[in-house]
Amino acid sequence: MGERNKKILLEQLQLPKNKLCSDCNAEGPEWASSNIGVFMCVNCSGIHRMLGTHVSRVKSCRLDQWADEAVQFMCENGNESVNVVLERHVPIYYRKPVPTDPQAYKEHFIHAKYERKEFATPGGCAHYETGMKEGMLWKRGKDGKQFKQRRFVLNMDEGTLKYFVKPDAKEPKQIINLTTLSTSLAPDKINHPHGLQLAFMNDNLTRQIYLYADEAKDAVDWYIVLRASSFHLIRKSYPQLSDAEVLRRLNSHQRKQGWMEKTGPKLTEPYRKRWFSLENRRLLYFEKPLDPYPRGEIYLGSRSEGYMVRDGLPAGQTEHGFGITITTPYRDYLLCCEDKEEQKSWINEIKSITTQPLTDQDNAGVSQA
Ligand SMILES: [Zn+2]
């Protein structure tokens, strides 16, 4: 009896509709919620346990005993049909978790999906879209490593996110234009599970701010609310962009980051190690990964305007590591990677940008010098 039920469940796991974790799309789920009817990975099963058995009853398909009716229920439901209902109204700006996402983000999603059922009804996510949010976050100081508490105020009517040094200060320390903002959650370099990174344009330079929240839920709430606000504002400001293009802008943050070496404008200058970060159409380089301002940036236009990337250094240059040459209408940039794999991966990322035609948003407010 037990063996037969296990066999049926393992067959269910082989079906295309159940092959990925119901909540994070990890491959090969082996756990299940016997009252909801979904299969999930071991990591998400741990989060389901935290919901309590009144919401989700977690069982292993391999290790636990299953009653006939429960197996029958799993066969009748499964990930695809349950998700059609519970994820029907996931908003376009909301990003469903992937296996590499921080734990806090997966927890937030699973609570929202099963406990609060935010995605099952049309207005379920309205609280992310009020365009107002205010609260205290820890912000990394410009020079030191210290984080200090700052008051952040989002106002979508104004199109701004501001922060204030003193809780009762009248004048903000910084005003961030939400249409230039991209936010990422728990980036490795902050080394905090509730970390946030904001990148935005300030006087035509890309600036980074590093933050963390005391509570995981608060960090994720900020992340989603900022994404929702930026999405709606970009949509409104650039009606000709498709939803996919707006999303690409929101997700463009940190396409790739890492150390490379770079020569100065006179190509004979010695190579210097710099931290590179690819943000939308800009390849920024920093002296150190957490610096608020880059030392400089390489704007990446399209191939038809004369922007190109190739492996190797120009003839006559001394070989140095694994070289990359970026050609722009203004000058050549010579970069070097430590190994061939990095070289290939940077070239592919940069090429994917230069082969893309410019959108209106790329041109808006962006100097191309
Ligand atoms: Zn999962």
From TrEMBL:
GO annotation, cellular component aspect: cytoplasm; plasma membrane
Superkingdom of origin organism: Eukaryota
Domain Arf-GAP: 6-119
Pfam families: ArfGap (PF01412), PH (PF00169)
Molecular function as annotated in GO: GTPase activator activity; phosphatidylinositol bisphosphate binding; phosphatidylinositol-3,4,5-trisphosphate binding; zinc ion binding
PH domain residues: 130-231, 253-355
Gene3D superfamilies: Arf GTPase activating protein (1.10.220.150), Pleckstrin-homology domain (PH domain)/Phosphotyrosine-binding domain (PTB) (2.30.29.30)
UniProt KW keywords: Cytoplasm, GTPase activation, Metal-binding, Repeat, Zinc, Zinc-finger
Localization of this protein: Cytoplasm
Listed PANTHER family: ARF-GAP WITH DUAL PH DOMAIN-CONTAINING PROTEIN 1, ARF-GAP WITH DUAL PH DOMAIN-CONTAINING PROTEIN 1-LIKE PROTEIN
Stated name of the protein: Zinc finger protein
Organism of derivation: Ciona intestinalis (Transparent sea squirt)
Gene (name only): Ci-ArfGAP-9
